[in-house]
Amino acid sequence: MTITITAFERSPDGGMGLARDTRVRWALEEVGQPYEVRPVSFTAMKAPAHLALHPFGQIPTYEDGDLVLFESGAIIFHIASQFAGLLPTDANARARAITWMFAALNTVEPPILEIAIAKFQEGDKPWSKERMPLIAERVRNRLAQLSARLGDDDWLDGEFSAGDLMMVSVLLRSRPSGILNDFPRLAAYVARGEARPAYQRAFAAQLAFNTAPPLAN
Amino acid sequence: MTITITAFERSPDGGMGLARDTRVRWALEEVGQPYEVRPVSFTAMKAPAHLALHPFGQIPTYEDGDLVLFESGAIIFHIASQFAGLLPTDANARARAITWMFAALNTVEPPILEIAIAKFQEGDKPWSKERMPLIAERVRNRLAQLSARLGDDDWLDGEFSAGDLMMVSVLLRSRPSGILNDFPRLAAYVARGEARPAYQRAFAAQLAFNTAPPLAN
């Protein structure tokens, strides 16, 4: 059976790798699984056929035979459970790696995403300029705590895991704001993630996908 | 070994059950595991001893022998993995139940939590009143999609699972705003969750904990 994921027909970031399909591509590259990508337009994303796969009308989705999943966290957890390479075998270490996945998605990503929401959905509002520093401060607070925990380690808990894959992916979304680079340990942590061959393949694949000429049809 | 979780010494909601220890208590009640609760004050939460358990200085944490976990999602996933009753045995159904856990935490909870952030951290700002309907609209969009997917089913995917436990817990946080009751199917879904004996025990335990007289010391 072939694993098929969905991605934006054209990512709003133009191929910076910040859309959530990149993290799924990365996970599949880490475990050495081939996959196909089905592009979804913004119109198709809200249509019944896609909503049947993803009730919130987003990307990515994951299809493998009869199984349909959505949510990048759930997809990467599934990949990490099916194939070796992304989760430790020791039970406690495994539970801690999974903890970092949830921390990335529920504690670190929401304030980072608020920056994009404030920019793209409230950028024209009279409060936009005055409010941005408040949001940035919330992101800084989280990153300061994360940096303190990481310390001088390479990864969050021993060997590289799905927890690091998710945290690096989430932190990448704070780089356009300039905030990431104010935390040298975290910037170096993200750079270590980006240097992995699997990440490089995933990044190149999404870039090619997002910059390919439109199909004639 | 005894399972020990942490909770607010006094929850800011005064015992409404919206703090994240309640969902962990609920999971432990569903699987029939006893547990102890260690209260943490707002001061202690940001001190080194607690930060060693929870790098973001929050509750709940989970301790069982040598294992220390944080993040309610990770804790509930761990409980559901260790003990029967919260995840299906069929592999695909299990992956879908886990998907709903991630959807609750990464897609549904963030906009709901924004309402509280706007109220408690930006309630004194000049834009507070004008901005609130924008945030509420984002919550409504998500809940409309979720309600469409749930339809007339009792639970999100077959039998009650950790995915429902998490989604109900997250939706409960939208009730004070009045938004939940605008979606009758979701309000009934939440009520089904609240009617479960395990939820009732968890709710009663957190209420007793949050309304007990302070310890003399």
Automatic annotation (TrEMBL), chains A, B:
<keyword id="KW-0808">Transferase</keyword>
<dbReference type="InterPro" id="IPR010987">
    <property type="entry name" value="Glutathione-S-Trfase_C-like"/>
</dbReference>
<dbReference type="InterPro" id="IPR040079">
    <property type="entry name" value="Glutathione_S-Trfase"/>
</dbReference>
<dbReference type="Pfam" id="PF02798">
    <property type="entry name" value="GST_N"/>
</dbReference>
<protein>
    <submittedName>
        <fullName>Glutathione S-transferase family protein</fullName>
    </submittedName>
</protein>
<dbReference type="InterPro" id="IPR036249">
    <property type="entry name" value="Thioredoxin-like_sf"/>
</dbReference>
<dbReference type="Pfam" id="PF13410">
    <property type="entry name" value="GST_C_2"/>
</dbReference>
<dbReference type="GO" id="GO:0016740">
    <property type="term" value="F:transferase activity"/>
</dbReference>
<dbReference type="InterPro" id="IPR004045">
    <property type="entry name" value="Glutathione_S-Trfase_N"/>
</dbReference>
<dbReference type="InterPro" id="IPR036282">
    <property type="entry name" value="Glutathione-S-Trfase_C_sf"/>
</dbReference>
<feature type="domain" description="GST C-terminal">
    <location>
        <begin position="90"/>
        <end position="215"/>
    </location>
</feature>
<feature type="domain" description="GST N-terminal">
    <location>
        <begin position="8"/>
        <end position="87"/>
    </location>
</feature>
